[in-house]
Every structure is written in structure tokens, then in C-alpha cells.
Amino acid sequence: MTTPRTRLAVLGSPIAHSLSPVLHRAAYDALGLPYEYDRVEVASGALGGFVASLDRSWRGLSLTMPLKREVLPLLDTVSPLARRLGVANTVVLDADGRRHGHNTDVDGIVRSVALRHDARPTSAVVLGGGATAASALSAAWRLGVRSVAVLVRDPRRAGELAPLASDLGVDLEIHPLTALAGLGPLDFVISTLPGGAADDLPLAPVDGASLLFDVAYEPWPTRASSRWSDAGGLVLNGLDMLVEQAISQVALFADGGEGEARAGHDGGGATTAVDEPREAARVREAMRRAVGSLSGSTRASSASSESVPTSDDGRR
Prior knowledge:
Largest sheet: 6 strands, mixed
Oligomer: single chain
């Protein structure tokens, strides 16, 4: 008798604060899918043992920091995007137990911006140099950016971004955070720093079309986002990204690895009902409604009006 593959979870450390279970459970309820989605504390170095312990009841995993790079050697296939970035935040387990790695963070950033912002700047500033910064760089490229300045506390930490930028054809400059003041008002900023870490940085928009995308959402609003908004700029935060990347994860989990099988295990990805615009909109609405029902938070100074409770990953 075939074991139903219904188990899913988000892994990371710390993970108790993660909103992913709230979002995913709302999505599966809306779609009528009998999946269980939990959170599991898995520290750096422990992922291999955890993955090896999974039985055939497991369907997939969402990964947050510090596991997005550690997972790569454990995968049977890696999607072209995840391979290019060296970062996977999603593992789909197929019926044979094979592990397929994907990156949905790029989708999360791109769709968040495309749904709420018409301007398409050709240059951007990325704050931070970790795994999420790689996704931010790729997302900026997909949005039309061809010149990126990455600012980090220690420029040596951003070394892995240089080959990626070269591969994408993006002009990349890497500076210490102290150089930010010399850049003046900015059109497009993606901050991958922990919540509140950008509060003392001199961030200012050029005009009302200038966008600050802060991938954190705990605490919210931050002083940096409030100053940006008060100066007339637009603000998106990590909940926007979390919802949009989760929609892509839901599609992959619903597919259950069948997309990889049809594509010859080359990481071709899923094609499911969730990819249909109406279904994606229904999932998005269910997720937003679930998060909006949580108490104790408000969302101020954003281009989107939903309430924002917490954060998930090293930022999220």
C-alpha cells in the first residue's frame, strides 16, 4: 500500500517565529489539499541527519537560514536557478524519495515588486552579502537592473556575489556599509539585513517612485522604512516576499516531483493548477487573510496595505 505523501515543514534555526506554517496551511485549506505543514528546529550541521531520517510520508521542505547553502550537496537534482545562485530554499521529495532543490526567493522578490510597483530602475543597491543577497541580485536583474552596488559590513563576505553578477551580465560594485552616505538618494534598495539593522543607515529616496524593499518584517515598521516612506518613497517588506515565494513553493509541493520526472530530473519545475492566475490569486488571498487575522501588529508606510506581524529567515 502506498504511503500518502502529506508531510511538509519549514526548517531552520531559530524557527519558532516562522510564519510559514500559517501561510502554507491557509493555502492547502484553500486548495483542498490534505497536507500537514509544521516547523522544525534544525541547526547548522544537522540538516544531513534530518533529511536522512525522513520516511516516504514526507513531500517537501522549506528552508530558511542557515540551511539554504548547506542543502545543496544533499540533493539529487538542483534547478538551474538554485544551481546558479548556490542557494536552495525548497526541497521537493518525489515518490521515489529523490530530493529536488529549487529557489523560490527570486520569484518572491520579483512578483512582490511587479504586483505593486510600475517603475523599472536600471540600477539598485543591495544591503547585505549572504544567501538572500544572491537571490536579491538575481531578482534585480530579472526586473531590468543592470548595475548593482552591494554594501556589507565586511566586503570579503560578498565575494560569492561576483561570479553570479558576471554570469548575469550585471555590473557589480562591492562597498562597506560606511560608503552608503556617498551614494546619495536612491531609486531602488533591497535590504537583506536583519530586522532593524538598517535603521541607522542614511537611506533616502529620490522621489515618489523610489522603492525600498526590506526583506525583514520583525520588527515592523522599522525606523528606516518609516523615514523612507515619510520622504515620499514606496516600501515593501519581507511579508510580501514570504507570501509570493510561498505561492511558488505551494505549486512545487502540489506537483510533488512530477515536474522533475517529466523533465528528466533536470530541475525543470512544476506545472500545476496553482500556476493558473486565478488559483494563484486565491492562494495569495488565503495567505494574506490568515496573516491579517493575527493580532498585535500593524503595517504602516507600505505600498501594500495588509497587516504585518513578524519575520521569518535569518531575516525570515
